[in-house]
Amino acid sequence: MTVTTDQDRYRILGELMIDSRLDAAGARRPLTPVPTHLMPAPDQGPITELPSPAPPRATLDEVLPGRVAVRDYGPEPITAAELSAIFAAAETMDAESWPGERDAGVRLEFFCATWRVTGVGTGLYRYLPGRDALRRVASLPTGQEAADLVIQTEFAQAAALLVITGNLAGSLDRHGSHGHRLLLSRAGAAGHAAWLAALRLRLAGTVFAGLLPHVLRERAGADGYHRAPLLAFAVAHPATATAA
Ligand SMILES: Cc1cc2nc3c(=O)[nH]c(=O)nc-3n(C[C@H](O)[C@H](O)[C@H](O)COP(=O)(O)O)c2cc1C
């Protein structure tokens, strides 16, 4: 469709508003649990138990003023306990903020690509929140080849990437198109909770959304509908500045 005049623009805006009113009307219908056929496919793979979450090393007040997106990472590994704390923060944020959605079957899932995590081999894992463990779902390349997994190659230099996916099919079934917005809000809250937990461990990183859909489709069964990639968080030790 070619949009040439202001009249065209007003017409399209009007149609969008009708859509959003229908959406709001749809959202007022009784909310039902997500049917089984809209659930993400089960996965399988060996389990790696995670240690208890590492306790924070700084208060939120101490780290918040210095919060900045970091895309340049140091080579030191992070620990499995630090990864555990980052997952726990994301999981707790979603569990405490959207219990009704989760009870109805609309879950966020947390995956991680790990390259430098002490005690966790390089690979792609899904976090199992009930038992503080990781299920290995795929292998991952290292070195130069890891850069093929991401749009911005610097993120392949992180120690780990937390990837948040959600059940878009289930959320749309419950809420109409508002379901997509709701999932994005949930992923944003969980991703930022992970980021703040990392900062309190004196780690660095950034949230980002530039994920390559085919990588997660092939390796994590993320078909974009039953399991839709939403947001990611890259974490590592910050690169130490070298004197000029
Ligand atoms: C929804 C969302 C998506 C983002 N996607 C990317 C991305 O694909 N690549 C990237 O480098 N940063 C991404 N970012 C991070 C922002 O670029 C970053 O927050 C911005 O550079 C502001 O920097 P600051 O957070 O240090 O203030 C994203 C942030 C949000 C909230």
Automatic annotation (TrEMBL):
<dbReference type="InterPro" id="IPR029479">
    <property type="entry name" value="Nitroreductase"/>
</dbReference>
<dbReference type="GO" id="GO:0016491">
    <property type="term" value="F:oxidoreductase activity"/>
</dbReference>
<dbReference type="Pfam" id="PF00881">
    <property type="entry name" value="Nitroreductase"/>
</dbReference>
<protein>
    <recommendedName>
        <fullName>Nitroreductase domain-containing protein</fullName>
    </recommendedName>
</protein>
<feature type="domain" description="Nitroreductase">
    <location>
        <begin position="66"/>
        <end position="235"/>
    </location>
</feature>
<dbReference type="InterPro" id="IPR000415">
    <property type="entry name" value="Nitroreductase-like"/>
</dbReference>
